[in-house]
Design goal:
Helix content is 88%, strand content 0%. It contains two helices and no strands. The protein has helices spanning 2-22, 27-48.
Length: 49
């Protein structure tokens, strides 16, 4: 399961880098949204464990 989490993190980072290459002015709001979603997901996992 940790390997799947690493794959997800690498895919999200790759997508963010691709977005930065195409539309740099859109990166900060999208990065903030992604950070919020990952934080809420981590909180959900912590509560369930």
């Amino acid at each position: 399961m940790p390997l799947l989490g690493l794959l997800f993190a690498l895919a999200a980072l790759g997508a963010l880098l691709g977005l930065a290459a195409v539309a740099a002015h859109d990166v900060p709001p999208i990065a903030g949204t992604v950070a919020l979603i990952l934080t809420l997901a981590a909180l959900g996992v912590a509560i369930l464990n």
